[in-house]
Design goal:
globular, disordered N terminus, 11-stranded mixed beta sheet, Amidase signature (AS) enzymes, alpha/beta, 13% strand
């Protein structure tokens, strides 16, 4: 493991007894009503297992609890991806590389988390296992966002220090924004997909949710096995872009208000904020008109399973996977080439900017009842799903990196501010996010 950013300063001394107490508290939270339906399996003996590991407190995660999205292989367990059609599959014999790296860093896996079936939704609804409620509103059960729904709830509720998940079109940043936590999507090539069930091999990114940007830096260093270089660049020396095209359309009033307040705070700190058109975003609809990478690449993986067990799929997931059956080889190759040309155009327009600023999603979390499973709610589900994925999916098509940080006022439903850029701008983006997070927290009186 490379030299990692220090994180153990938040842990009180006390050796294995303190570690066991911390893990017992985490498991207790995971088993509570706050995390209802967030975990599909729970390792109730996690504290005992971790306390017996020699030298665990010298490791970067020092035994801290980690939740694992049901997309990743964990030795001795079945990887079902939130579905029932794989429930009788053989348990895996090894950990996925992401899980192995978290364990090697001292992390304690406390359980597998719920998700949108096969990671094909930004809403977080699951008809097989139920939908975990967003902890941000105890009064009204609201969606957690997806597809990494249980991972988000586990972190937001305090059961997990790191929620391991994946991001293909926004599946880390969407739930982070809706639940009021931090979600970092790194440049896809920096983290290994080995042992993760695929949705789109082109767009899938292994990444995580945490409760702070500092913890996101640590999680990325572990998952990517690399050192993040932080320049500590002051906000007064930074230049941001706000993309007008699409990203600001149809914002709910609470999101618009929080986003405008965040921009004002950054400007007050001396940052330069420019509005730019970024008209290339309009072209994504044409580029992906045949169905996009997720449809064709997921169908390639699922086609035999659909033939034998298709009736067991969530109908909302199955219909989108089956769209890939009609995509021709030449259309797929055209898509690959069009994306490469589009990336070059966008990267040229972003030259000179430290980050682009956008609302992560255009809405606060709607009630689960509006989009719960049922044909009578399909129209509402697909409308909400498209809105949630609208801004975040731009970054996946860009092969870029992005982070969502909370920017809402205390006592209001969570709103996420997304900072994003092109490929391999990860370190600079994390550096910027640290500074922005601190300034936004100070403005909220935290």
């Amino acid at each position: 493991m490379n030299d990692l950013i220090a994180t153990r300063d938040h842990l009180s001394p006390g050796g294995s007894a303190a570690l066991a107490a911390e893990l017992e508290r985490a498991v207790s939270v995971a088993a509570s009503a706050t995390c209802s339906k967030a975990f599909l399996t729970l390792q109730k003996d996690a504290a005992k297992a971790a306390s017996g590991r020699a030298g665990v407190r010298a490791l970067p995660l020092a035994g801290l609890p980690v939740s694992v999205k049901d997309l990743f292989d964990v030795e001795g367990e079945v990887t079902a991806a939130g579905s029932t059609v794989l429930a009788d599959a053989k348990p895996t014999s090894t950990d996925s590389l992401a899980v192995a790296r978290l364990r090697a860093a001292g992390g304690t896996v406390i359980g597998r988390t719920n998700m949108s079936e096969f990671a094909f939704s930004g809403v977080g609804v699951n008809p097989h296992h139920g939908t975990p409620a967003n902890p941000a509103d105890p009064a009204t059960p609201r969606i957690p966002g997806g597809s990494s729904s249980g991972a988000a709830v586990s972190v937001a509720a305090g059961a997990a220090f790191i929620g391991l998940g994946s991001d293909t079109g926004g599946s880390i940043r969407i739930p982070a924004a809706l639940c009021g936590i931090v979600g970092f999507k790194n440049t896809a090539r920096l983290t290994p997909l080995h042992g993760a069930l695929p949705l789109s091999t082109t767009l899938d990114t292994v990444c995580a949710m945490t409760r702070s940007v500092r913890d996101a830096v640590l999680a990325h260093e572990i998952l990517a096995d690399r050192r993040v270089v932080l320049a500590r660049k002051p906000l007064a020396q930074q230049r941001f872009a706000v993309a007008r095209t699409q990203m600001l359309d149809g914002l709910e009033p609470a999101v618009a208000q929080a986003f405008d307040a965040a921009l004002a705070t950054l400007r007050d700190a001396g940052a330069r904020v420019d509005e730019i058109a970024l008209d290339a975003i309009h072209d994504l609809g044409t580029i992906q008109a045949t169905g996009g990478f997720a449809a064709v690449e997921s169908y390639a993986w699922h086609r035999q399973l659909l033939a034998s067990r298709g009736i067991g799929y969530d109908p909302r997931v199955r219909i989108r996977i089956e769209r890939g059956a009609g995509i021709k080889a030449w259309e797929y190759l055209d898509l690959v080439q069009a994306r490469a040309a589009w990336i070059a155009r966008v990267e040229a327009e972003l030259q000179g900017y430290d980050a682009v600023l956008s609302p992560t999603v255009p809405m606060v979390a709607p009630p689960i009842a509006q989009v719960a499973p049922g044909a009578e709610r399909d129209e509402a589900f697909f409308r909400v799903n498209a809105q949630l994925l609208r801004n975040t999916s731009v970054v996946n098509m860009l092969d870029g990196c992005a982070i969502s940080i909370p920017c809402h006022a205390p006592g209001t439903l969570p709103v996420g501010l997304m900072l994003w850029h092109g490929a391999l701008h990860d370190d600079g983006l994390l550096d910027t996010a640290l500074a922005a997070e601190a300034k936004l927290a100070a403005a909220r009186g935290e």
